[in-house]
Amino acid sequence: MQLNTSGFRQNGLSQRSAGSSKARCLSGIAESLRSGDQERAKDYEDNGPKLSIFGERDHGALLQITGKRRNALQYDIGNPLTASKMTRHQLPAALYAPLRVVLFEDEQGRGIFEYDKPSSYFGQYGDERVTEVGRYLDATLEAVLRNAAE
């Protein structure tokens, strides 16, 4: 799916960076999940970010080898709690969590978000519990990216 934008702000996404409180929050929720701390997981689900950026790669810089560097960033975006709602039923769903999104500049200078709808790959497992989370991610990812594009 493509989403056009004239710029990029990270509204609605929490950015994971070394030493930040958001990074501690993400590692904290991962530890809560590992230890089975249901109270903390519920608090994170109710009050934490719906999606977070786990990684960022400057894919456009790779094109410098051709002499044609482009503005293109690839992001790993997800939520450990949401991922666990799928992988508890279908562990192979971990192949697609976190989600991948590419933000690139087209020939007209417009920013474009490109991604596959999560339900398209989580639906392959034939497990309605996983597919339902994929549909939730379809709506959540689109809303977060639209908000970032404003």
Structure in words:
By secondary structure, this protein is α+β, with helices and mostly antiparallel strands. It has one domain: TT1751-like domain (TATA-Binding Protein, 2-Layer Sandwich). Helices cover 40% and strands 22% of the residues. The chain has helices at residues 21-35, 38-47, 80-87, 118-122, 128-149, and strands spanning 2-5, 13-15, 51-58, 72-78, 99-105, 111-114. It has a 6-stranded mixed beta sheet. Strand 5 (99-105) and strand 6 form a beta hairpin. Helix 3 (80-87) runs antiparallel to helix 5.
Instruction: Please give the largest β-sheet.
Output: 6 strands, mixed
- Helix proportion of residues, in percent? 40-55%
**Radius of gyration using CA atoms only:** 16 Å
Global mean pLDDT:
85
Q: What would you call the structural class?
A: alpha+beta
Examine the secondary-structure arrangement and name the CATH architecture: 2-Layer Sandwich
Instruction: Give the number of helices.
Output: 5
Categorize the overall geometry.
globular
What is the beta-strand fraction?
15-25%
* Low-pLDDT segments, ≥5 res: 5-19
Secondary structure: number of strands? 6
The arrangement of helices and strands along the chain is EEHHEEHEEHH
Distance between the termini: 18 Å
CATH structural class: Alpha Beta
What is the name of the CATH superfamily? TT1751-like domain
How are the strands ordered across the major sheet?
1-6-5-4-3-2
Number of domains: 1
Stated plainly, the CATH topology is called: TATA-Binding Protein
